[in-house]
## 1
Amino acid sequence: MAVTLEPSHSDGLSAGPVRGADPLEDVARRLLVEIGEDPTREGLADTPKRYAKWWREFVGYDPGNVETRFESVSNNQLVIISDMLVWSLCEHHLLPFNCVLSVAYRSDASLLGLSKFARIAHKHAHKLQVQERLVADIAAEVSEITGAKDVAVIGRGEHLCMTMRGIRTGARVTSAVFGGVFEHDGPERSQLMTLAQNHSPLHR
Ligand SMILES: Nc1nc2c(ncn2[C@@H]2O[C@H](COP(=O)(O)OP(=O)(O)OP(=O)(O)O)[C@@H](O)[C@H]2O)c(=O)[nH]1
Ligand SMILES: [Zn+2]
């Protein structure tokens, strides 16, 4: 369910430099002051407003309908949706990470509309996350909606908390959830791995 951040002053953030109507804008002004900036200088005048807007856009992402299903056309066909790029926020540092996702499933019950996989992926990315939970959340929802046990999700991400700060490594992080037929080495898993490994955030 999409989260809406309604302006409210019950957060105790009363020590902002200029108290406005919107507490998220107050947070931005306060942040600017704390990092040695002047929130009233020309370039920053509208920054608190933009900051508040972007947070509301981010956590308020509406995935729309994610449940359009069709009758299965053939028994247990393997479907892989690969190379979906999403952006999320690391819950440890509030810094962005991106993730290229491959989702695979096999269902003899119903087919899920293809666009729904990206909607589900964005839905779980638009919150404070760690990559492992993002991948697990997507797998759980695909499984719940389709009724399929054979669901796998692989994510390959770049975390700014590890690249622009901290250890400053260019490492990419791969995490995966393998359910049902994907748990064991077999044709379904190899096909998925081949598709997932060919793509990274940098080589698209
Ligand atoms: N498992 C997991 N860890 C993450 C993810 N994003 C960031 N981290 C890690 O979370 C940890 C936070 O560690 P802390 O020691 O509390 O913070 P820190 O001192 O900023 O850590 P360094 O980045 O090692 O400097 C770091 O090791 C990050 O790399 C993620 O998606 N999954
Ligand atoms: Zn982080």
Note: The chain has six helices and seven strands.
## 2
Amino acid sequence: MTAPVIGIACCRWTLEKDRPFHLADDDTLAAVRVAGGLPLLLPALGGALSHADLLPRLDGLLLPGSLSNIDPRRYGDEATPDDFIDPERDATTLALIRAAVDAGVPLFGVCRGMQEINVAYGGTLCRAVHEAPGRLDHREPAGDMATIYRPAHPVSLAHGGWLRRLSGLASVTVNSLHHQGVERLGQGLAVEALAPDGLIEALRVIGARRFAIGVQWHPEWALDERPLSRPLFDAFIAACRQRRTERTARLAVSIRREPVPA
Ligand SMILES: N[C@@H](CCC(=O)NCCCC(=O)O)C(=O)O
């Protein structure tokens, strides 16, 4: 069996001279490869990325973190001029998420990716968690990469939840690099983990045929050093492998059914 193909949603950033580039971070690609997947970068083409063309070729969909924020108009809030948004990524991922889950494509959202799952299911975001009464500051500290991605706070894993079953743990300590967070949970989503201030740190799509999980932290960083990070990627890729097996079996049947030329 060849490696499952994992579509990784790119950001679209203008890096120089008004030339936009499609980007994904290297740690996410490395984590997918270590767990046995074949990363395939999905350009942020919005509506030009045909789901009918794409989804039958994908074994998994991964939505990585990003410095950019989801356009607040996507969840009914007002835009502010200085917000760093990425409309093309929004147009790509927000349309793709539910289509992927409905097609049985395993889905894994990290940080912005988890926020995208929430918005795709009709949820809203708090745009500055550190300013919300009773909330902790979830932003990263200044410093080198080890400091930025340091274990920052515990999260409690939901009783009877999927993450608790996977890890056998009641809580894990996670890194934290975000200033936005889930405000209203989307319809059809379940809480999988909470921070000490009650902020939702992980969620799951209820009734999804396969892995459909979002986490607010970054398991791709120091993959083998944190208790839940490698198991998360391994479980995601295992689900993708299962889809690949079924997908290739279906393909073989349809090829056998092709009439043999006389
Ligand atoms: N901009 C949003 C999402 C935060 C996020 O995804 N951070 C990732 C930072 C860079 C990385 O390591 O990918 C927010 O601030 O809430």
Note: The domain at 5-257 is CATH 3.40.50.880 (Rossmann fold).
## 3
Amino acid sequence: MERIRVGIVGGTGYGGIELMRLLLSHPQAMLHCLVSRSEAGRRVDAVFPHLRGHTDLMFEAEETADLTSCDLVFFATPNGVAMRQVPVLLENGVRVIDLAADFRLRDPDLWARWYGEPHACPELLQDVVYGLPELNRDALRDARLVANPGCYPTAVILAFLPLLRSGAAPLGALIADAKSGVSGAGRRAVVGNLLAELSENFKAYGVSGHRHLPEIKQALDAVAGQTRELLFVPHVVPMIRGIHATCYAQVAPDIDVQALYEETYQREPFVDVLPQGSHPETASVRGVNLCRIALHRQSESGHVIVLSVIDNLVKGAAGQAVQNMNLMFGLPEDTGLRYAPVVP
Ligand SMILES: NC(=O)C1=CN([C@@H]2O[C@H](COP(=O)(O)OP(=O)(O)OC[C@H]3O[C@@H](n4cnc5c(N)ncnc54)[C@H](OP(=O)(O)O)[C@@H]3O)[C@@H](O)[C@H]2O)C=CC1
Ligand SMILES: CC(=O)N[C@@H](CCC(=O)OP(=O)(O)O)C(=O)O
């Protein structure tokens, strides 16, 4: 099989940098075209010296980049960029994975409400496949346009999926209390993300409503076949990578949730259900495409507490995007994604 010719738009951001890291050592992919407005004309390894010896490519400007000669283009751009460029690529037979949120919500009115502008190509929204392989593996194989999930949604949906799919969480609200490292906010300069502002500090944000709430709800309601109340509160913590989601649901006391999760995820290459009562750490998934999950029960009340950790840049973004690429191009799903975590 010929290597997949890959383009990346937004190669200078954290998602794009992580995509380059993974794709440069992928045995079946070939980086072909890297777009950046700020670094156009410069060698990739001059901008990112950690990639010296791995690539001779240059960043190219949007106007000159030949994206239509790619087999697949990843968008790792801010929300609202991909939706303006994707229709032309699809018309030219190029498949697309968008790491941003442009194609994640099926309802264009909901998108406009949360993202503050009308959707540029609402006619495409029904054909999009939401790129969570644990939910949509079969549909991903034929997908032309994949909406890669948000980082928090990946951690939270995987935490609740077995309960909702089996109907085991019949009562009350689902609660997701999530913490993210600051790389989740991207690489652009923001005062609130400076070392002096963030270190020795800890805060919630988006408590009245974060844009990942409708995304998580859309997926979980579809699995449950009904609308469920969901409370989601994100926090930013002084670390670089990682998401830790502590998720709560009320479950009938007689259900063996450990067995349920082990059975649901037993064939999933990138979800690891730990022994009951474990405490997964974000460091244990640093740099790898993996969600580790652990279950707890504190009493006979029926509440179950699900702990879910991912690396926001890998299973929460670039790694999941490569997993989706593998499925779309008929490769073994774990091609180029079998690494041990970086610890410490
Ligand atoms: N960081 C994370 O953990 C995750 C991020 N995501 C999503 O992935 C996307 C990328 O995130 P991240 O890499 O963190 O973001 P960054 O801010 O780090 O990078 C954004 C990239 O987009 C380019 N860019 C900025 N504005 C435009 C524009 N108007 N048109 C074209 N390119 C533009 C920038 O490069 P240049 O200016 O050189 O063109 C840069 O390479 C976002 O939508 C984000 O929400 C999803 C899951 C997790
Ligand atoms: C810590 C932090 O700021 N995290 C980001 C997550 C961004 C992200 O990945 O979300 P989208 O892909 O949906 O834009 C935030 O809450 O905005």
Note: The pocket of NDP (ligand 1) is lined by residues 10-16, 36-39, 76-79, 81, 99-100, 150-151, 183-184, 186-188, 312-313, 316-317 (CB under 6 Å).
